[in-house]
Amino acid sequence: MSVVLAQETGRGPGLAPAGAKRRWTRLVLPVYSGLVLFYLVLPILVMILYGFNASGPKRVSFRWQGFSLFGYTHLFAKPDLTTALKNSLFIAVVSTVIASILGTLIALALVRYRFRGRGVSDFVLFMNISAPEIVLGASLLSLFVSFGVPRGILTIIIAHVMFNIAYVAVTVRARLAGFDRHLEEAAQDLGAGPWITFAKVTLPLIWAGILAGGLLAFALSIDDFVITNFNAGTTQTFPLWVYGAVKVGIPPQVFVMGTLIFGFGVLIALLNVVAQRRRA
């Protein structure tokens, strides 16, 4: 009788109710996920917070001195930092556009065509992604020195395009994996030529993948330090300038600029999500 009662109530000898145990185990994954997300977001939150640190025009350490909008009202007070930010944005935009075009074309070729060397192309793409940055940076430096190419913005753009192509190609290729070719065939049956079919049918359908690859390429380009440091010469980018400023103290404008760049990326991602939902 006691065994039957224990089974009905979900209790055993000296055990908690089964429902209470299930409720406890249900909390493990959400709590763990929340802690991991907090760990990932914590550096960004610190950056946003110290953009409001009342340090004035001085270079400061990580010591909170009160709330202030000085970093926002004097955002471009340091000409060398402003120049470094402009260089980073210019390099990121140009390299992203070039890498997005070339990466998309490579993805289309790898998905739709069978050609000699296709397997080698796949291998090179993934090798580019998995190779350490110091290896890529040193290799590019050796290449530029061997051919006597002066290092500067041009060499940085070439380097960033080189490692961004693989990320764009892999992202767009994933988008093309479930692409229905019958839509293109229907457009061609209705009289559309190859270019019109691509512009009116193919491109809108894979645009989300191209945009995702482009945003990834932009993020990788604007915060790259290792490869840029090898191939920059005397050109200063935002990460290189910040690295040099760490030795004497980081001004609040650095945190503000980082916050604005992060906010711009989040805004673009949200607009993309909204546009996809409206399209659906």
Describe this structure in words.
With 280 residues, the chain is an all-alpha fold. It has two domains: 2-50; 79-250, MetI-like (MetI-like fold, Orthogonal Bundle). The chain has 13 helices and no strands. The chain is globular and about 70 Å long. The chain starts with a helix and ends with a helix.
Number of strands: 0
Radius of gyration over C-alpha positions, nearest whole angstrom? 26 Å
Proportion of strand residues = under 5%
Overall 3D form? globular
| SSE string, helices as H and strands as E | HHHHHHHHHHHHH
Tally of individual domains: 2
Point out poorly predicted stretches: 1-5
Number of H/I helices: 13
Q: Which CATH first-tier class of the largest domain would you pick? A: Mainly Alpha
Task: Summarize the biggest pleated sheet.
Answer: none
The CATH superfamily of the largest domain bears the name MetI-like
CATH architecture name of the largest domain = Orthogonal Bundle
Straight-line distance between termini: 59 Å
User: Whole-number average pLDDT?
Assistant: 82
* Relative helix content: over 70%
The CATH topology of the largest domain corresponds to: MetI-like fold
Which structural class fits the helix and strand makeup? mainly alpha
Layout of helices and strands, plus pairs?
Elements: H1 2-9, H2 18-26, H3 28-50, H4 70-73, H5 79-112, H6 118-130, H7 133-146, H8 153-176, H9 181-189, H10 194-222, H11 226-231, H12 238-246, H13 252-279
Short description:
The protein is mostly helical.
What key phrases describe this protein's structure?
mainly alpha; 75% helix; 280 residues; 2 domains; MetI-like fold
